[in-house]
Specification:
The protein has 8 helices and 9 strands. The chain is of the alpha/beta class. Strand 2, helix 4 and strand 3 form a beta-alpha-beta unit. Helix 1 crosses helix 2.
Length: 243
């Protein structure tokens, strides 16, 4: 297999065999917000050959502070389609499958069981669909990495990778663990999280009718760094670079 010129420096670092493994890999990325959009970017620039991306959302003005595809000129446009065009502009040879919708449990099960994904990246920021995806991945014995909450955090040095059972100082992860426990899942999910204490003053409560019941404020770089960390872990595992 010929390595394209734009991957020359990547090949110099990790070698041709690892590049080929990435080109032959098949990944599923669910959620294209602040974490998922940047995770996808780093995966594509690393040379991943096949990727399925899922998100039913449109760009909103409030996304501009942290999401890769969010610009004033893209407000109201599909997050999935914007990133598809961007990824193809990075690597015209990449195979991209898109789902511009929020997946129902039966749809997600069919997708996972009918595809041989090397890794699933969970970048969902809503509790119920996230729980559904994680439970489905465990049921089908799929390799999965999951992002916890990047909101209310400022310190990049506090970002960690570990089993979901080791997560701490993250209200979102705490709630997720409780709900996973009811599904009989206590461990076995690779997680990216920050153990920085969340700032209480950064929490906004809502009526929960049209949006989440609460959410933390975010800074531009933290969701991106969560995405970078997820992509790094997946690339190194898929390309057999883990030491």
């Amino acid at each position: 297999m010929e390595i394209p010129p734009w991957l020359e420096r990547t090949e110099l670092l990790i070698g041709k065999d690892s590049i080929i493994k990435l080109q032959n890999s098949n990944l599923l990325l669910v959620g294209l917000g602040g974490v998922g959009s940047f995770a996808g970017e780093f995966l594509v620039r690393a040379g991943v050959g096949n990727i399925t991306i899922i998100d039913g959302d449109l760009v909103d003005g409030t996304n501009i502070n942290r999401q890769l595809q969010a610009l004033h000129s893209t407000i109201g446009q599909s997050k999935v389609n914007l990133l598809k065009d961007r990824f193809l502009d990075i690597n015209p040879a990449i195979s991209i499958t898109t789902y511009e919708k929020f997946m129902e449990p039966e749809d997600m099960e069919h997708l996972i069981t009918s595809n041989n994904f090397d890794f699933v990246l969970d970048c969902i920021d809503s509790m119920t669909p996230k729980l559904m995806l994680l439970a489905m991945a465990k049921k089908t014995k799929s390799k999965i990495i999951s992002s916890m909450g990047a909101g209310g955090k400022l310190d990049p040095s506090k970002i960690k990778i570990g089993d979901i059972s080791t997560t701490k100082e993250c209200k979102f992860a705490q709630s997720l663990r409780k709900r996973l426990k009811k599904e009989g899942i206590k461990r076995g999910i690779i997680s990216v999280f920050s153990d920085e204490i969340q700032q209480k003053t950064a929490l906004k409560l809502t009526d929960g009718k049209n949006y989440k019941k609460s959410f933390y404020g975010t800074i531009s770089y933290m969701p991106a760094l969560f995405g970078l960390t997820m992509a790094s872990e997946v690339v190194r595992r898929v390309a057999d670079l883990k030491k």
